[in-house]
Amino acid sequence: MKDNPLWFWVNFCRGMGAVGAVLLALPFAIDLDMGHGGGASLMVGLMLLLTGLISAAVLARKARQADRILRPADVLAHWTGTDEDGDAYDVVISRVGIIYDTEVLPFFGEHCGLVQVKLEAEGQTPKALQVLVDGWHKARRHTFDLRLPIPANAQAQAQVQTVLATLQGLAGQRQPG
User: Fold this and answer.
1) CB contact at 8 A, 133 and 107
2) 75-170 architecture in CATH?
3) What interhelical angle do 6-29 and 38-69 show, nearest 10?
4) How far is CA 110 from CA 65, 66, 80, 101, 174, in A?
5) Whole-angstrom Cα distance, residue 164 to residue 154?
6) Which of 40, 84, 154, 163 is the most buried (most CB within 10 A)?
7) Can you give the pLDDT of all 177 residues of the chain as single tens digits?
8) Per-domain residue ranges of the chain
C-alpha cells in the first residue's frame, strides 16, 4: 500500500523549527554580540522557528487525514498508471476520502464531503470515475471535479463496480470528522 509522504514534510518542518530554536539560543549561549551576528541569528532563528512550527501544524493535520484514507480496512482501490496525455498518476480511493497524486480529499469532516460519483465508459470498458468533492483549497471552500482514470488491467476493471457502488452510497452524506 502507498506510504504517506506528508510525514516526511511534517518532520522536515519540525527540524526547521528546531534549527530556529538553536539559532535563537545561540547568541546567549556563546555570548555573541548583537552587532557581530547575534542579532541576525535571533531574527533568522525566530523566522525559522515560527515558520517551522506553523507549517508542521498545518501539514500534520493533512497527514492525519491521509493516514485515515490509507487505512487498509477502508481502501477500496489503489490505481497507478498513465493517462491519455502520458502523465503518471497515483490514486487511492477509500471509504473516507481520495488521495490523487498529492491532493488529499477527505469525504467527511468540517465543510467537506463527497457530492457525486459517475462512471465514464467507452462501450463496455470503464475509462474513468468522475468525482465531485467539496473541500478546502488555499483557505477557501472549493468543489473539486476529479476525473480518476481507471487502468486497463483486469484487477482495476474488476474493482470499478464495487468502488462505484460504495462511493455512490456515500455521496451526499455529511459526518463530523
Assistant:
1) yes
2) Roll (2.30)
3) 160
4) 12, 15, 29, 22, 9
5) 16
6) 163
7) 567 888 999 999 999 999 999 999 988 888 877 777 788 889 999 999 999 999 999 999 889 988 888 888 888 888 888 877 778 888 888 888 888 887 787 877 666 778 888 888 888 788 888 888 877 666 667 777 888 888 888 888 888 888 888 888 887 665 444
8) 6-69, 75-170
